[in-house]
Design brief:
This protein folds into 2 domains: about 10-60, Orthogonal Bundle (Arc Repressor Mutant, subunit A), CATH 1.10.10; about 65-210, Tetracycline Repressor, domain 2 (Orthogonal Bundle). Helices cover about 75% and strands about 0% of the residues. It has helices at about 10-35, 40-50, 55-60, 65-90, 95-110, 110-120, 125-155, 165-185, 195-210. α1 packs across α2 (about 40-50), α4 (about 65-90) runs antiparallel to α5 and α5 (about 95-110) crosses α9. The longest helix has about 30 residues, at about 125-155.
Length: about 220
């Protein structure tokens, strides 16, 4: 049976396997946050997930594999944010980008310690693993830019936005939002919802005021 999205529906066994994998990753994320990557053991992660250590090895053959699994999970979450943000608002590209920016910032705040841990540990991988993972993350980022570029393409065709490369524009906007998230990490206090709204409004307005097509007088 195939659902509306076009992908085959998972069998019961596949759904159960996926659910177990997510529980293990959730336990690893919590323990890595609490104890750090090097201090958390697979035995502790198994106990935290309420599985036997053997069950962990059925899904992840090492702590490093779990670390990679978390990176992939976070990457999938950001892709879902892009998709849902573009679908949740039927307004202008500016409206959709506002929803996206707020969602990215909220996700970064909720996972700030985990992102910090990943930035610390990923540089300790051997060069081949590091390059492979970076290549995967770049490909994932490209998918995100392709998704958020769609409303830009639409408004370019309508003559509302200056003709340009929509993927490059999407990359530029995404970089602005993520730079803001990085600058906020480690500060002594979190921004309030109102402050986040104001910052997002500033970023979105700066971006769209620069690319919006102006009608020439006369």
């Amino acid at each position: 049976m195939t659902p509306q999205g076009g992908k085959p529906a998972l069998s019961r066994k596949e759904r159960e396997k996926f659910a177990r994998q997510q529980e293990i990753l959730k336990a690893a994320r919590e323990l890595f946050n609490l104890k750090g990557y090097h201090n958390a053991t697979l035995e502790e992660i198994a106990r935290h997930a309420e599985f036997g250590k053997g069950t962990i090895y059925n899904y992840f053959n090492s702590k490093e594999a779990l670390f990679f699994g978390i990176i992939d999970q976070l990457a999938s979450e950001t892709l879902e944010i892009a998709q849902s943000s573009m679908e949740s608002s039927k307004g202008t590209a500016r409206d959709q980008f506002t929803v996206y920016a707020k969602a990215v910032i909220s996700h970064a705040r909720a996972n700030a310690d985990l992102f910090h841990l990943i930035f610390q540990e990923i540089h300790r991988l051997n060069s081949e693993e590091y390059e492979t993972k970076l290549k995967q993350l770049r490909a994932h980022a490209r998918k995100i830019w392709e998704i958020i570029a769609r409303p830009l393409e639409r408004e370019m065709r309508a003559g509302k936005i200056k003709p340009s490369d929509p993927i490059r524009l999407a990359e530029f906007f995404d970089s602005m939002v993520r730079l803001f998230c990085m600058n906020q990490h480690g500060r002594s206090r979190n921004l309030t919802s109102r402050e986040i709204h104001d910052e997002v409004t500033f970023i979105v307005n700066m971006f769209f005021d620069g690319i919006t097509e102006r009608k020439r007088k006369g």
